[in-house]
Amino acid sequence: AGAAFWLLAPPLNLALGIVLVALALGGALLGAWVAQELFVSENGVFVHYRLLRRDRDIFWSHARLLEYAPGELALRFRGDRDLICAGPGLLSAADARRLREYIYRYSEARTTPMRARRDT
């Protein structure tokens, strides 16, 4: 992006620089999203965002609804606090199947309803 500002003509350098900065930011966000660790237990869901050095969790007793995005790329647990994390669609087939089994087993045991995410 910096090279585009210095080496190209004025109208083109601004447009190309903005596009390159947007791509860099998008790549950084995607890297942070994919680098998270997800732990599911009988108590709840724990997410560790490695690149952000941040942890989030939600207990099954506090989860009122579980939404999944198209292609199961993301899961959203709604409750006292919302939790958004990577879904089974980003994992290998075996890991995705195992994650779905744990989530369905624990959420059904706690009667947490599941539904596909609808954009309104």
Give a short summary of the structure.
With 120 residues, the protein is of the alpha+beta class. The protein has 3 helices and 7 strands, in the order H-H-E-E-E-E-E-E-H-E.
Write the layout of secondary structure elements.
Blueprint: H1 2-7, H2 10-34, E1 36-40, E2 44-49, E3 54-59, E4 63-68, E5 74-79, E6 83-86, H3 93-109, E7 114-116
Parallel strand pairs: 4-7
Antiparallel strand pairs: 1-2, 2-3, 4-5, 5-6
Notes on the structure:
The protein is α+β, with helices and mostly antiparallel strands and 120 residues long. The chain has 3 helices and 7 strands; from the N terminus they run ααββββββαβ. It has a 4-stranded mixed β-sheet with strand order 6-5-4-7, with no helix packed on it. The chain has a 3-stranded antiparallel β-sheet with strand order 1-2-3. Strand 5 (74-79) and strand 6 (83-86) form a beta hairpin.
Instruction: Enumerate the spans where pLDDT stays under 50 for 5 or more consecutive residues.
Output: none
Helix amount, in percent?
40-55%
Discrete helix count? 3
Say how many strands there are: 7
Order of helices and strands: HHEEEEEEHE
Determine the N-to-C terminus distance: 36 Å
What sort of overall outline do the alpha carbons produce when their principal axes are compared?
A: elongated
User: What is the arithmetic mean of pLDDT?
Assistant: 81
> What is the SS-derived class?
alpha+beta
Strand content: 25-35%
What's the multimeric state? Answer: single chain
The biggest beta sheet reads: 4 strands, mixed
Rg from alpha-carbon coordinates: 19 Å
The strand line-up of the biggest sheet is 6-5-4-7
